[in-house]
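User: Teach me something about this protein's shape.
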Amino acid sequence: MIDEVSLHILNILQEKARIPNVEVARQVGMAPSAVLERIRKLEKQGVIDGYEVRLNPAQFNRRLIAFVFVRTLSQPGIGPGEIPDRLAEMPEVQEVHHVAGDDCLLLKLRVSDPEELGRLLREAITPIPGVASTRTLTVLSTYKETARFPISGILPGE
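Assistant: First, the predicted structure itself:
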């Protein structure tokens, strides 16, 4: 069960995952050892799914974001998760979502330029057996991009 103190800790960690444990403890008014124990418990329960560094894509020539809708066909010999699994293996693919509507999958790609995007679509995505078509939206500018989401007052599983 997650209480208000744990929610406060989670909010702090969402803001800055590398914050020192002592600073988290100061902000929530607890001993560092108690905060560390709570964090370990939240990790063990699967509430905290991991930690990762957010790199600046421009520093790695990955300025172009594209969202690609993928329409698939049912084909004998192709399992239901096979196409999404193959797409998820591609390093340029940041997200793969099964969506409602005419298209089956929605991908978020990050590539260097339109040429790389075209090459990826032609040579890696559309040749996958069962991919019927793609529809691509390219991002002109980004105003907000985050993996954070509001958790105040919300307990997992509710």
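Now, about its shape. Residues 32-44 form the longest helix (13 residues). The first strand starts at residue 64 and ends at 72. If you'd like, I can walk through any region in more detail.
User: That's plenty for now, thanks!
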